[in-house]
Amino acid sequence: ADLLHAMQALSQLSYTPTKEARIIVSEIRFVKQCAMLRPCDDNGTMNVNSGLALLVLGAALGIMVYIAVVLAPLVFRTLAPEHAAPLMRAQFRSYYLALGGLTALAAVLLIETRPLPGAFSAVAAIGFLILRQILMPQMAEARRDGEAEDARERLRFARLHRLSMVVNVLQLAGIASAAALLVFSS
Predict the structure, then answer these.
(1) Cβ distance 120 to 152 under 8 Å?
(2) Mean of all residue pLDDT scores within the chain
(3) How remote is the C-alpha of 57 from its chain's centroid?
(4) For 28, phi and psi rounded to 5 degrees?
(5) DSSP strands (E only) in 19-139
(6) Which of 64, 128, 135, 166 is surrounded by the fewest CB atoms within 10 Å?
């Protein structure tokens, strides 16, 4: 019965014509809260370049985490090693190219207005270029030579692989830092 009375009161309120404006003032001001976040302009609207860069950086982070946490373990758990390793090697050329492009785009969008997150993005992009163009061919050479049972080349491959993983973790941290700076710095 109380619900029915409340609904009747609301319906009368909304249909009762008056000459004065009825404005409900709320204590929650989303625009003002947005103004505290860095991707927003002084008037509380999001800067288009910062917003796009934040989306691009989020996509890059998502791809990196998905590959590391879901895809790579799944491939190595599901496929035989002689099939899993070539599949992962094949996808890394595209992985580095796509992430290099995303982080370069973020750097271009940010470098003029937000230089620190832009610099983090640019360094990550350069890292992807180095990994793809320099480190991957060296790893492929060491792997081929290591298949000939040369202990030095197997050790060289292991070191290069470890280096690529460290660089990837640093890139992940740099991209996450750029995104955090966009959202939380003042």
Answers:
(1) no
(2) 82
(3) 4
(4) -90, 125
(5) none
(6) 166
pLDDT in tens, 112-167: 889 999 999 999 999 999 999 999 999 988 888 666 667 888 888 889 999 999 99
Please tell me the total number of residues recorded for the chain in this structure.
186
Q: Are 59 and 99 contacting, i.e. CB atoms less than 8 angstroms apart?
A: no
Which residue from 181, 185, 141 is spatially nearest to 53, judged by alpha carbons?
A: 181
Answer yes or no: are the C-beta atoms of 175 and 121 closer than 8 Å: yes
**Mean of pLDDT values over 35-57:** 70
Q: Does the global pTM surpass 0.85?
A: no
The burial class, CB within 10 Å (0-12 / 13-18 / 19+), for 43 is exposed
**Strand partners for 95:** none
33, 143, 150 from 96: Cα distances, Å: 37, 19, 28
Q: Strand ranges (DSSP E) for the chain?
A: none
Does residue 48 contact residue 60 with C-beta atoms inside 8 Å? no
The neighbour count for residue 110, using CB atoms within 10 Å, is 28
Q: Do 178 and 106 touch, CB atoms closer than 8 A? A: yes
